[in-house]
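Reviewer 2 asked us to include a model.

Predict the structure of this chain.
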Amino acid sequence: MRTIIIRTMKPQLKALALQIRELKATRKQHAFGAVPGLKDAQVTYRYMHICYCLLRGRTIGQIEPKNREDNKRSGYHFDKAWKQWVGTVYPALPEVADEAPLCARA
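Predicted model (structure tokens):
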């Protein structure tokens, strides 16, 4: 069950990483290096990556061992990402979609 989700997420993570690299390359063309859409793509990638790692059996401590005070995880963004990526593959299994936020906050 989880392997299907993981196989679905991995190509999307790779495509998002490529998009981030391309947006970063255009920083010199924009005023003050502010590229539209870059921050949103980075936030989406971060939370999608956390969901991906949790599905693979990692703990939050292994995923983000050093987390600065100004860069804490947002419960809202994480819950949204979890339901988006797990819920699209298994919409009929709400217990799977609700599983990770509890273990992610521990």
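The two ends are 23 Å apart (CA to CA). Helices lie at 2-25, 38-55, 60-63, 75-89, 94-97, 99-105. We have added this to the supplementary material.
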